[in-house]
## 1
Amino acid sequence: MSVLGQSPRARPEIQALGAYRLAGGESAPVKLNQNECPHDWPEEVKAEVARRLLSRPWNRYPPLDGRAVREALGRSCGVDPEMVAVTSGSNEALLALVQAFACGRRVVLVRPGYSLSVSLAVVGGAAVQAVPLREDFGLDVPAMAQAVSDPDVALTYLASPNNPTGVAFAREDLLAVLDAARGLVVLDEAYADFAGQSLVLAVREHPHLAVLRTFSKAFGLAGARVGWVVARPEVIAAVRAALPPYNLNLFAQEAALAVLAYPDLVSARVAQVVRERQRVYRALQRLDGVQPYPSQANFILFRTPLPAPVVLQRLLAHGVLVRDVSGQPGLERCLRVTVGSPEENDRFLDALARSVTP
Ligand code: PMP
């Protein structure tokens, strides 16, 4: 029995975090708040996954380390399967990397940036140092180089394209940070398919680079929770040691393997999102008082004349759910909208036009 019958307290930094939650709720007729793919997988592909699941024993553990998925990913990325680890979403990969490399040490990341990266670094036991981006949301290379060259910095986290800004960092800026870093550099390429640029093959020459990828965005498989890390075998061995065994369940493994067989469908969907991104961006530019920022991801950051929570609620009244990102430094009155299907985008643009007039 604990003192006075009370539950023990969690670490203070965990108590301060609280559980992950989404302002505006989890669903809406037009759901554009989580950068998901607007299209579900065709019924035939789902049926194929269901058939495979029916033929597998559910009383047995799934294949260890998602072997077949690692092999398929290795082939599609052009690296050896020993350079790939699969995880339950790329968030799990980031947590494992922090735990393996940075527990009790320091993580450098950028602001504005992916807010969950801060929480995962804290949960993984690291101290966080945030380096501000330039005003155009590009990397401040001298400031970054100085921060990451400190021997106390065990891990540097960068997402490119960055979330919520949508900016893909210049390749030479990323390489400059990589050259200056003493610890591991984790490059999160969750949105790289929409930017058409990747540093995945640079892991061959850079032993301290780990690239994160996910099935949640371009692959349209957020429900299955599958992500992967590409890095040199020594780094992958550390990630796998830090992960609980059998982290990727049977359904996740089968779903990932199934969708990897449809690269043409994935690229056609990515191409549609890229076209729609351009159309939505131009339409936002034409809206009085609204300032959109150029994006290379599947979402657009925009500023409005009104407080972001007011715009969020007004859009919700029209059935449109976006993300309020105004809490981050430099993003006052900013929201982020996922590029959806053409119909969803039309509904969003129409709802926004009605919501930003005072
Ligand atoms: N990285 C970034 C930069 C993201 O924005 C997101 C999605 N919110 C993720 C990772 C999450 O990926 P996953 O679903 O693979 O955990």
Note: DSSP finds 13 helices and 13 strands in the chain.
## 2
Amino acid sequence: MNNLALDKELMFKALEEAKRGIPHVYPNPAVGCVIHDGSKILSTGYHKKFGGNHAEYEAVKNLEKIAYGLTMYVSLEPCTHTGKTGACLDLIDPNVFDRVVIAEKDPNNEASGSINKLKRSGINVDLGLLRNEARELNKRFYVFHEKKRPYVILKYASTLDGFIAQDNGQSKWITNKNSRIENHYTRSICDAILIGSNTAKLDNPDLGSHGIGRDPKIVLIDFDNSLGSLKLFKKNPIVYSSKELSNDNSKNINFIMNDLFKKNIQSLLVEGGAKTISNFLHCGIFDELHCYVAPKFLGRGLNIFQGKSSIKKKNNLKLVDTKIIGDDLKITYKRSYS
Ligand code: AOF
Ligand code: ZN
């Protein structure tokens, strides 16, 4: 096996280690580490839970005896900060480690900055091996720190002809029960869920995970701030009203994103309705789109897309998954940024 193939295999192993920490490390990134002596793996480690030891600490601790000339493979740049634990940088002794291979930089300014320090201490550093895989593993963490906003998932459920509600606003039973359960799972893995006032009024929704896991924090856009009697108010929602918002939809979304970032919300599920989803689509602030399509036709009603567009307009959507849920179909697109 040549060196690159071996490096890849070992970084792949570090990524596999990292995955073992999901979902317990959230909102921290999942990180894995492998220590190799040139002929065999001496130890491995991963970040097991939020607030717990970092991957490098676990791997160094698992080394059975003092050794020299080692290579560390780690899926995220080692941290420089003393947070809930000590700085991982301090564990990488240049007398022990000749080389550190890092998949991707840490986008968290508080923790990053170890690469140059490692180099200055005489250690060879290689950055970028399996970078895409490492970014995908912690995609919410990267969007949050790099774009300074939550990772945004837009979700809607429509008929085969693209309607999300009848003329009278009735929309509750478009998709089947298992599609709804699938979405309750998505709610359970998002920090917050956002809806507009029309949806709140028409559906009086619960917006919880229905016992699957954690309930997301509720975020409501309600210009008039007049919906206090709805049941979601029992859950102490964040409300954005005309106090904070203007008649410029893009500005409003940017304001909300910035505010949720400050509130440390790393992931946001937007569940409508049509106007709200269309505004997010229009200003291009989203990362994933979950479309649930049910085998029904309405012919008329409320269409999911409320903006102006043309057949030529590219939405930069990349199909990443399709899932058959009974007779419904869940289609997952990712936004491509290039
Ligand atoms: C590493 N190795 O295994 C992880 C790192 O709250 P703390 O003190 O645990 O620090 C969390 C931050 O540290 C997190 O936001 C990210 O920047 C980095 N995570 N770093 O060297 C690890 N999980
Ligand atoms: Zn660390």
Note: Residues 3-19 form the longest helix (17 residues).
